[in-house]
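User: Is it possible to get a 3D structure for a protein together with its bound compound? The compound here is pyridoxal-5'-phosphate. I've pasted both below.
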Amino acid sequence: MKYTSTRDGSICVESAQAIAQGISAEGGLFVPQQMPQLTMADLTEIAAMDYVEAAKKVLGYFLTDYTPDEIDHCAKGAYVGSFDQDRPAPLVKINDHAYSLELWHGPTCAFKDLALQILPYLLTKAAQKTADGETKVILVATSGDTGKAALEGFADVDGVKILVFYPSDGVSAMQKLQMTTQKGNNVGVCAVHGNFDDCQTGVKQIFTDSQKAAALKAGNMAFSSANSINWGRLVPQIIYYIYSYASLLGQGVITQGETVNVVVPTGNFGNILAAYYAKQMGVPLGKLICASNQNNILTDFIRTGTYDRNRDFYTTLSPSMDILISSNLERLLYHLTDGNAQQVKCWMEDLSKNGKYTVDDATKAKITDLFYGGCADDTATKAAIARQFDRNGYLADPHTGVALQVYENYVDQTDDHAVTVIASTASPFKFSKGVLEAIGRQTEGKDEFTLCEELSAATGYAIPASIAALRGATPRFTDICEKQELWQQVVAMLGL
Ligand SMILES: *Cc1c(COP(=O)(O)O)cnc(C)c1O
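Assistant: Yes, that's possible. Here is the predicted structure of the complex:
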């Protein structure tokens, strides 16, 4: 399997190169040149597998330059011993039609673990294969979940250093504590006076500054990326969509070939794009339901064909979806235009120049056929959390709450009662305050751990061990820098 760039069709690299590099030199994203095809026999076979075996099978289609032994090492390293009961993606029945795909049973209690537990293994192997021998320096700008999951995945990994920047007032108290108490000799965490965009802009400026790259190269180092522009983050996410279809088949919930809808609470369009890839591989998925919070730029795009970021930015109860530039949409556009890199490049130039672009009618028609876009504000999200808990005893975090509300709206509008998998992306205990308020409790003046205990007492759900363990932990990383000072932090950490 070879990979090309969404902005330059002449590029052709192996998966190791795509993963080591993270992003193509001209700014495009790496995409697979063919789509492997799964038959019903393959899905039946996967239904009898555990997660590690399923992961190995799926990764084998895409990472053809990795040996079976290497893939075995990566999959076992990532998925054995790090997730509750070694089940990274349990499917939990909500009602006769709806199943919650709980992706938050890993070390940091958010779905980012599914990819960031394996990325360090994939990247280490990729660096060996591309034989550059350089230390990879991973810079992360985070609004909370990616930072912690990347720190946890890369802590004490040889040949890697990782530095995370987060907005000093833009993450939840629990997310902050998770990051500032991180262990490991190759990690750094720094708060930034500013918002998430300031962090992201600062990191991007460092990535694209040739003098800074040269300074690293002189020390036999190079930057790499751990966010979902990296193909190594996306490919592990395809596994659980295939696996959940196979599991439903194995349990007899659906028959061979029966269509299953998927609902994904979306920010950067990475997770839902993985569902699209599973569908293109032949898994009988129906509508891909894209759920947004009040930052509903994707809802508008799916409905109108115009992507327009000239709008207000809202801070919501689901911070990991507070985003106005969904990077992975670029990959979808590439596939829907049958690989028209020139066209994709034009749209992305429009986006950076004018903050918007409009796709042609043929592309728009394909989008409407594949996707349904919907959104829910905080009020509707809280109501959905309360309703699910009352009706089905199911407790959802605010990101999953957005998905549940949009799913209800979809069924109301379409009367489509197909079996549906709802991606549940975070533990409710990462966002105890919002969830407690949703179920009608007072939260005023209470600290994070009191809120966790009250949520547990009110619902009967257990506090995840990794969250309980943070109580009383002393933060290691207390630096706060100005938004112009990110590079000084990098220099200090690397000893340049
Ligand atoms: C990152 C994240 C999302 C959004 O996922 P994308 O791949 O960026 O669309 C949703 N929910 C949670 C809890 C997240 O951490």
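The chain has two domains: 2-79+112-229+477-494, 86-108+232-431. The two ends are 38 Å apart (CA to CA).
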